[in-house]
Amino acid sequence: MSSVKKVKIIIISDGTGETAKAMCRAVMTQFPDRDVFFTRFKNVRSKEQIKSIVDEAAIHHDLIIHTIVTSELREYITEISRISHVRTLDLIGPVLTTFSNYFEQEPNSVPGLLHQVNNEYFDRVAAMEFTLNHDDGRNVNTLHLADVILVGISRTSKTPLSVYLSQHGIKVVNIPIIMGQDLPEELFKIDQRKVFALTIDPEALHTIRRNRLTRLGAEQHTGDYADNSKVSEEIEWANDIFKKNKRWPVFNVTDKALEETAADIMKLLTMRKNNIFKQEMSEEDTE
Predict the structure, then answer these.
(1) Which domain range does residue 229 map to?
(2) CA 266 → CA 78, 163, 261, 263, 285, distances in Å?
(3) What is d(CA 129, CA 251) in angstroms, rounded to the nearest whole number?
(4) Considering its fold, how many domains does the chain have in total?
(5) 62-116: pLDDT as tens digits
(6) Are 67 and 133 within one domain?
(7) Which ranges of the chain does DSSP label H, i.e. alpha helix?
(8) Per the domain annotation, does 2 fall within a domain?
């Protein structure tokens, strides 16, 4: 039977504690024969929480490792741990001091920022995955989960615009408008403020489609795809749909950079969000 004593290491963090956890895992690979288990305390933001943890650690002689960015709380941990004879290791303080000296600037000392950044990253990844799975009218059964739904005829930048928006954490579905075919019923069952229509001038669309056929080596087999009259008819068909659905804002993408159209859509989303927030606050004030 092993005579090695099982020990506990306590992780204290004002965020998730993932930084300290990852560091401890890396260190413990150098001590494979040690029997250690970890207890993690997340979102620690007060002296009362810290004192309670340190008091418990003192009973069992546990080691405390912390990543607290607030200098006042770090100093408190040092002070109370000394009094209680508890060993502590500050993983973030020396790093913050070094960077502060190097940049000649005080750190923000805002707790939980790394967790916030990580959440934003995973939100973007989820949005991109969602968007790619809903390209060109696929999976309309989960249309209600989208933040933005783009509708437009072929070659109005639906897919590239969808991908660009998803990189900002926006879940996008794009649905093609095909002349003579009805749009999916699901589109009219969700919040119509999510729907954004894309249109384009006939001359520009004709040029785009003609150039695409040339790149594909199919300029001799255009059919209706790049025919002037058919292009105009297709645009009119789509514009008639937009007129019937007055809640859909229409964006003309003719000669506009992708980023410009995306910025217009995000601006409108922000305005709507702020307006909803103000309305909710106003309703709370009257209660």
Answers:
(1) 121-286
(2) 47, 14, 9, 5, 28
(3) 25
(4) 2
(5) 999 999 999 899 999 999 999 999 999 999 989 888 888 888 888 887 776 666 6
(6) no
(7) 18-28, 47-60, 71-84, 93-103, 113-133, 158-166, 202-216, 228-244, 258-286
(8) no
